[in-house]
Amino acid sequence: MQLGILGGGQLGSMLIKSAIDFGINVAVMDKNENAPAGKYTNLFTCADPLNYDDVVKFGKQCDIITIEKEAVNTEALSYLRDSGKQVFPSPELIAIVQDKHMQKEFLLKHDIAVVPSILINSKAELQQQSSKLPGCLKLRRNGYDGNGVMMIHTEKDVENAFDAPCILEEKVDIKQEISVIVSRNVSGEVACYDAVAMVFNNEKHLLDYQICPADIGEDLKDKAYNTAIKIANELELVGILAIEMFVTSDNILLVNELAPRPHNSGHHTIEGCASSQYEQHIRAIMNYPPGDTRLLYNAVGMINIIENGKPNDFTKIWSRPNAHLHYYGKINSKPGRKIGHVTITGSTTENLIVDIATVKNILN
Ligand code: ADP
Fold first, then answer.
1. Ligand 1 atom having least distance to the Cα of 148
2. Residue 55 resides in a domain
3. N or C: which end of the chain has fewer CB within 10 A?
4. Are residues 144 and 195 in the same domain?
5. 49 near 8, Cβ under 8 Å?
């Protein structure tokens, strides 16, 4: 069995780690010759996942093709699927998720609550919509880690706005940001992990740390869980899907965005659950039964390590019994990019929050 992964970042590395336990060979394609996952397979192809010919050529050597990022050529994936390859998630699903507007239309069609938005095709169009401010302007395509997101508070901010196809969302009074990861295998069996609370750095729109389980009360927990399963079924997902949601100050749950692949908000599942999100993704696309998603600890936290040009002394993390470091070994990583993460397990949420603060101090 030859599994091909489009994208060779850290999510790809962690997928390879899980694939090994199933005895599956993995081929990886990434346009960066130093892609982290490339060093863990002798089947690495340096080529562009957005290029039609590159994806077709790569896919022809594989039995199953999957993704670890959404920026891939879906026409090539459709061709491969139509010529007999298994492609999970489906090219149609990936195409919906690649475009924030299409994503929203899909969710609205299936009665899922989202943040209201309008289409904005250019900066000039945004200037004419000043009555809709303040709002959150998002590039329709190719945004990642907050890079395609900009708060537009007043007309003055329009000057620096993206001049490209966007959506302008209403500014939400966010009480909490959560993420739910759901899996669905080829036979349609679904499994869902506990909701994770994500705490963001407001300036960089970048995840600061996360805690599982999210403290949102039983009603919202059920709602988040049912919403995740409904979306997975409506999308006919095969694989895993992370669903980022907002809990508003009025306790309303709104879906923010979908990612049909292993996700940053699921890193904690490696140490925190019997079956990690990576294992779950492999199980889903191989049509194996879903693994156990229950948390093994009362609380589990995760901190991203961000490149800031300063060297880190990891010995202080390695010597902490409840901390597990994942260092991605990226070469020439740019400031602001994720270069690793630390999972921290806890007996209570209160203890965990103290430990997260300690580990964050070590990392700076
Ligand atoms: P990305 O896909 O780049 O991660 P997101 O859509 O998740 O972008 O937005 C990044 C962050 O910006 C969110 O986690 C949230 O903190 C903030 N944000 C996004 N949309 C809104 C909104 N409509 N109102 C207020 N804040 C928002």
1. 3
2. yes
3. C
4. no
5. no
Domain ranges, residue 38? 2-87
Is pTM beyond 0.85 here? yes
Verify that 263 and 340 share a domain, yes or no: yes
Question: Strand 299-306 to strand 149-152: parallel, antiparallel, or no bridges (unpaired)?
Answer: unpaired
Q: Is the CB of 143 under 6 A from ligand 1?
A: yes
Compute how many other C-beta atoms are within 10 angstroms of the C-beta atom of residue 27. Answer: 19
Same domain, residue pair 218 and 300: yes
Phi, psi (rounded to 5 degrees) for 361: -65, -40
Per residue of the chain (364 residues), what is the pLDDT tens digit? 899 999 999 999 999 999 999 999 999 999 999 999 999 999 999 999 999 999 999 999 999 999 999 999 999 999 999 999 999 999 999 999 999 999 999 999 999 999 999 999 999 999 999 899 999 999 999 887 778 999 999 999 999 999 999 999 999 999 999 999 999 999 999 999 999 999 887 776 667 899 999 999 999 999 999 999 999 999 999 999 999 999 999 999 999 999 999 999 999 999 999 999 999 999 999 999 999 999 999 999 999 999 989 888 899 999 999 999 999 999 988 898 899 999 999 999 999 999 999 999 998 7
Domain for residue 102, yes or no?
A: no
Q: State in Å: Cα 138 to ligand 1 middle.
A: 8
Q: What residue's CA is closest to ligand 1, atom 2?
A: 144
Ligand 1 site, residue 146, Cβ cutoff 6 A: yes
Task: Output b/e per residue, 237-265; b: 16+ Cβ within 10 A.
Answer: bbbbbbbbbbbeeeeebbbbbbbbbbbbb
How far does the centroid of ligand 1 lie from the alpha carbon of residue 185, in Å?
Answer: 29
Domain count, the chain: 3
Protein residue whose Cα sits closest to atom 14 of ligand 1: 205
Instruction: Say if 247 falls within a structural domain.
Output: yes
C-alpha–C-alpha distance, residues 171 and 143, integer Å = 18
99 within domain boundaries: no
Q: Are residues 164 and 216 in the same domain?
A: no
